[in-house]
Here is the input.
Amino acid sequence: MASSPSSSSFLLLLLAFLAASAAAASLDGYIHLRFYNHERVLGSGPDATVVYAVERRRGSTAGAGFGNIIIYDNLLRAGVEPDSPIIGRNQGMGVGSSMAENSGLTNFQLVFTAGEYNGSSLALQGLFPVAPLGTVFERAITGGTGRFRLVRGYLLTTEVRSTNTTLTGQLDAYITFR
Ligand SMILES: *[C@@H]1O[C@H](CO)[C@@H](O)[C@H](O)[C@H]1NC(C)=O
Ligand SMILES: *[C@@H]1O[C@H](CO)[C@@H](O)[C@H](O)[C@H]1NC(C)=O
Here is the structure.
C-alpha cells in the first residue's frame, strides 16, 4: 500500500468502506471482516504460541482457572485451513476472572500484516468463556490504529475446529468508523 499523503489513505478507506457497505448493505454503516485465529494449545513455536505465565491448578471444578494469567501470540489466517494465508497476529492476554464458571477477561490486539489492512490494528477486550465448539461469544472493539483509527465495534468468536494440539476460531469483526 502506498504511504503517500493522507488524502490517498482517506480515499482507500472511503472506497473500502463503500465497497464493504455495498457487499453487506443490511449492516448499514458497518464493515464486516471475517478471519480465523489459529492457536496452538500444546507446544510452542513461531507460528502459534500460548504461554501460561501464571497458573494455579485447582482441579477440574468450575472456577479452576481463577487467577491464571495467559499470554498468547496467535496467527490470524484468511481461512480455517492451517495453510491458508497469514493476514496478521492476535496478541494479548487473558486473566481467569470468574469464581463461578470458567471464563476470563481478555485484552488483546489484532495486528494485520498483509492485505488491505496491513500495518493497522484493532484493540479489543471482553470475556472469553470456556464453552463447547460452536458457542458464539462477543467482545468489544474499543479502538484501533492506522486505517482503524477511532473505530468501534464488536467481535463475534466461534471455535470451529479443535485437535489435540490446536484450536481454531472464526472471528467476525463488525466495525464502524466515526
Ligand atoms: C506489509 O507492510 C510492510 C510495511 O509497509 C511491508 O514491509 C510488507 O511487505 C507488507 N506485507 C505484505 C504481505 O503486503
Ligand atoms: C494427537 O492426535 C494424533 C492423532 O490424531 C496422534 O497421532 C498424536 O500422537 C496426538 N498427539 C498428542 C500429543 O497427543
In short: The two ends are 23 Å apart (CA to CA). Confidence is low (pLDDT under 50) at residues 1-26.
